[in-house]
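lol ok so funny story. i was supposed to be doing the assay writeup but got distracted and ended up predicting the structure for this chain instead. priorities right. anyway since i did it might as well share w the group, maybe its usefull for someone
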Amino acid sequence: MQQPLTLQAVILDWAGTTVDYGSRAPTQVFIEVFAQHGIQITADEARGPMGLFKRDHIRQITQLPRVKEQWQSVHHRLPDEEDAQNIYMDFTPRQLEVIVQYADLIPGVRDTVEAYRESGLKIGSCTGYTRSMMAVLLPEATRQRYHPDSLVCPEDVGGGRPAPWMIWQNAIKLQVSTASAMVKIGDTVADIDEGRNAGTWTVALAKTGNELGLSEAEVDALAPDDVAARLNAIYEKLYAAGAHYVVDSLADTLPVLDDINARLAAGERP
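and the output, tada:
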């Protein structure tokens, strides 16, 4: 008799999910490099495409109506692919300079990942960061005793989110043959799209990541009612984007995985 399917792996995002509470490392750099080209963008505009490969992220910002209008005013033409590439070339060294400043593990991550391992789960990971950026970030995470079994970056597979390639490459590296036996966990709509496109369960994080966009200290300084109202709106957005589950942080995911295993045992699939 065939054994019921159970979860075999979790695929974790990085900034806003396991490190960098509030996903702040990329945001300020996006603002800085666009300013170098004479374009002023807001934090919300910088955060909008978060989760994408950084070159794709920059390309999307250049196509925002307000950005295009500024570009026309400053440069007397609309931004093109070469402009996006130039901004990306400016972005990369600056991101490498600051990424280590935002490398602290998010509270609860280490214990949660240990609990995953104790339950027999493999730990995959993927990101919008490049290999060169992860070469700086990964040792810092390892120093804090977080080191996933697998890491895949967009250039490893020819493209980033929302395409499913990074998840599928993680599956190959982890030797997981069924998408339904994996859970993608991240803090952006792009993470959700990636998981849905890959055929996995998707869990979105509302409090520690890009959508709230605040450090832990900034969150703690807010009135509880204010935090609750903001989180309610984020939960609605992430569920509307297609997440199977939304929770505050990675530390809140263990009961979710138990529920997914129950659904798998009952024959349900993502």
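Residues 209 and 233 are 14 Å apart (CA to CA). The chain has 13 helices and five strands.
back to the writeup now i swear
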